[in-house]
Design brief:
Structural class: alpha/beta
Bound molecules: uridine-5'-diphosphate-xylopyranose
Distance between the termini: 52 Å
Strand order of the largest sheet: 3-2-1-4-5-6-7-8
CATH class of the largest domain: Alpha Beta
Number of domains: 2
CATH architecture of the largest domain: 3-Layer(aba) Sandwich
Helix content: 40-55%
Strand content: 5-15%
Number of helices: 19
CATH topology of the largest domain: Rossmann fold
């Protein structure tokens, strides 16, 4: 099949390359010229394991092409995926849909054949309906069908999650071609036994919002339990293990620590609350405010813990921060708990040096006033305390003796409960988590 992917960020670039991998002819549209040039040369402007190889393979095979032209897109195919960003609006909880809207406004007037536009971006419930009405106004004597096909990929596992998803969801208006075309698009995945759930668009939009709200709630649940554990002297990891054996609960997403960040969970739960409010159902999701509160409290709690291990004040102290990405196997620093903590500690008068295996460039852009080191050991030089805030394998396996030789004070705070307490204590460290 021939298809177009609009927007080549974390989601769109992965989707475009994976569709080429499934054998389709794909044209990716990206408005930022530098990103476009990189992708056209078979390079990926962000870190995602395996993606550079996949993009290069299909740029070389000719199945994946990149352009900045909507006119070319309209000419190329009659199936379009929207994969542009839907960030949080500045100063508000709701999602900013300007990029989704712009894609429709620009594309639809250029279409000359009946077309299907499949939204992949995370949007508030009701968006497909609104866009469908707008597309009808913009379309010139043709039928433009809008349907929603939400994406559940995790950064760091994006290719695996796209090619072998837990489920496929399609929200289509009755009577259209969306289901048939989507079945053809994902034929290989559906044949492999992946559940394919077809609903109307509001349900599909809410499947995505509900999934992320549940995941965020699960993380904040265990972090709330962790707060009680701190007060009671209990071990939250043992609790997570023990309750996780119950199949109804499950162990995944019960890792207590610094909490969730990134470009999805935080903004998606806020957008969900905002939309519920618009629909007159704010009360139903009021618990998500507490989920958000518990999560943000982890960050201030970490700063307090750092101050405590430094003897009550951070003024003039040197703090090493290991990890800047919002999670390992990613260079994404959007709403990163690690960088947020680094910034707060610096504001309290400490000198902060950050090291991350992949997220250095993005961190420098977001927090130019922090110091950055080229290795974990360099970041720890003369540090009064070392904070491990992203659970990269490099930090889990680091030698506490080697780090112990360069620091000023052997104090480590394990913000992701990922280090071996015994190993660090045996190497003479004061270990806190
Ligand atoms: C998430 C959803 O998992 C994905 O389905 C959706 O499409 C987009 O949002 P992603 O943002 O890539 O994906 O990361 P995810 O692996 O879900 O982690 C989110 C955050 O939660 C990270 O900051 C991670 O460190 C944190 N987390 C995760 C915890 O604090 N504890 C856990 O047990 C699991």
């Amino acid at each position: 099949m021939r298809m177009v992917v609009l927007g080549l960020g974390y989601l769109g670039a992965t989707h475009a390359a994976c569709m080429a991998e499934l054998g389709h002819e794909v044209l990716g549209i990206e408005v930022i010229p530098e990103k476009r040039a990189q992708l056209a040369a078979g390079e990926v402007p962000f870190y995602e394991p395996g993606l550079p190889e996949l993009v290069k393979r299909h740029i070389d095979s000719g199945r994946l092409k990149v352009s900045g032209s909507y006119a070319e897109a309209a000419d190329f195919a009659d199936v379009f995926f929207i994969a542009v960003g839907t960030p949080q609006k500045k100063g508000e909880y709701s999602a900013d849909l300007q990029y989704v809207d712009a894609a429709i406004e620009e594309l639809v007037p250029l279409l000359t054949r009946d077309s299907l536009i499949l939204g992949k971006s995370t949007v508030p419930v009701g968006t497909a309906q609104r866009l469908s009405e707008r597309a009808d106004e913009l379309a010139k004597d043709i039928d433009v069908e809008i349907a929603w096909n939400p994406e559940f990929l995790r950064e760091g596992f994006a290719i695996e999650d796209t090619l072998h998803p837990d489920r496929l969801v399609l929200g289509a208006f009755p009577g259209g071609r969306a289901e048939a075309i989507t079945r053809e698009t994902y034929a290989e995945i559906i044949q492999a036994g992946t559940p394919f759930i077809v609903t109307e668009p509001p349900t599909a939009e809410m499947v995505k919002a509900s999934a992320n709200a549940f995941l965020a709630t699960k993380i904040s649940f265990i972090n709330a339990i962790a707060e009680v554990c701190d007060a009671a002297g209990a071990d939250v990891t043992a609790i997570a293990d023990a309750i996780g054996y119950d199949a109804r609960i499950g162990r995944k997403f019960l890792n207590a620590g610094l909490g969730f960040g990134g470009g999805c969970l935080p903004k998606d739960i806020r957008a969900f609350m905002a939309r519920a409010g618009e629909l007159g159902a704010a009360e139903a999701l009021s618990f998500l405010r507490e989920v958000d509160n518990v999560n943000m409290r982890r960050r201030t709690h970490m700063v307090e813990l750092a101050r405590e291990v430094c003897g009550g004040s951070l003024l003039g102290k040197r703090i090493a921060i290991l990890g800047a990405a919002f999670k390992p196997e990613s260079d994404d620093v959007r709403d990163s708990p690690a960088l947020n903590v680094a910034g707060q500690i610096q504001l309290q008068g400490a000198s902060v040096t950050v090291y991350d295996p992949k997220a250095m460039d993005n961190s420098r852009k977001l927090f130019p006033t922090l110091d950055y080191a080229i290795s974990a050991v360099e970041a720890c030089e003369k540090a009064d305390a070392v904070l491990v805030l992203t659970e990269w394998n490099e930090f889990i396996t680091i030698d506490p003796f080697a780090i112990g030789n360069v620091v000023r004070g052997k104090r480590v705070i394990d913000g992701r409960m990922c280090l071996s307490r015994e190993r660090w204590r045996n190497a003479g460290w004061e270990y806190r988590s």
